[in-house]
């Protein structure tokens, strides 16, 4: 955690890029939030979840960032008075299994480009799903549940939250609609 924090020249005005559940449940204090676009990465259900949205016997899927494309999300500025405390909360949530590689990357916002902490999928870990077909993805999402509830709720809540935030992800909307149809 401190290694990542120390990579910044100045440890103030620290921004975090959210692209999944951080959009609808950040769980850390922030002073400002903006729409942001990250170039070079795209949102994907590419991370196995064996606790929060699945079990070891029936793993679920959660979002990660894969190389290629662009991803719209939100950036959050952590209060300067409590950077360490809020950073700890974020780190406990996002890095318990070290499935992500934390990186400081440029994000484009309406107010200009800022450098934000981005959690990118580490494709070398066992938590990386590899390529799944659309049907495999839907079956996993429909059948998995963990301590935070059913995987399908996570996917549809994320899709709905992105739409409310004015973030367009056509494939996620399509996938969410397929899941809702199957559940009906």
Summarize the structure in short.
Helix content is 30%, strand content 35%. With 184 residues, the chain is of the alpha+beta class. The protein has one domain: Hypothetical upf0131 protein ytfp.
Q: Topology, pairings included?
A:
Blueprint (H helix, E strand, L loop, with lengths): L1 H5 L8 E4 L13 E18 L10 E18 L5 H12 L5 E10 L2 E10 L12 H10 L1 E2 L2 E2 H14 L5 H14 L1
Parallel strand pairs: 1-5
Antiparallel strand pairs: 1-3, 2-3, 2-4, 4-5, 6-7
Helix pairs in contact: 3-5, 4-5
Structure explained in plain terms:
The chain is α+β, with helices and mostly antiparallel strands and 184 residues long. 30% of the residues lie in helices and 35% in strands. The chain is built from 5 helices and 7 strands. The strands form 2 sheets. The chain has a 5-stranded mixed β-barrel. Strand 6 and strand 7 form a beta hairpin. Helix 3 packs across helix 5 and helix 4 crosses helix 5. The mean pLDDT is 91. Keywords: Lyase, Transferase. This is glutathione-specific gamma-glutamylcyclotransferase. One of its GO terms (cellular component) is cytoplasm.
């Amino acid at each position: 955690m401190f290694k990542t924090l120390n990579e910044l020249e100045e440890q103030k005005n620290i921004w975090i890029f959210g692209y999944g559940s951080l959009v609808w449940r950040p769980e850390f204090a922030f002073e400002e939030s903006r729409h942001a676009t990250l170039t070079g990465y795209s949102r994907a259900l590419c991370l196995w979840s064996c606790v929060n949205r699945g079990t070891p016997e029936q793993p679920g899927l959660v979002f990660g960032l894969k190389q290629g494309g662009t991803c719209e999300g939100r950036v959050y500025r952590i209060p300067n008075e409590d950077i360490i405390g809020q950073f700890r909360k974020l780190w406990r949530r996002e890095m318990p299994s070290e499935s992500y590689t934390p990186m400081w990357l440029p994000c484009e916002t309406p107010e200009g480009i800022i450098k934000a902490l981005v959690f990118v999928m580490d494709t070398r870990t066992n938590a990386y799903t590899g390529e799944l077909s659309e049907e495999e993805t839907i079956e996993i999402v429909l059948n998995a549940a963990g301590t935070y509830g059913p995987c399908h709720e996570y996917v549809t809540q994320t899709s709905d939250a992105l739409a409310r935030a004015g973030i367009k992800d056509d494939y996620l909307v399509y996938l969410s609609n397929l899941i809702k149809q199957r559940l009906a």
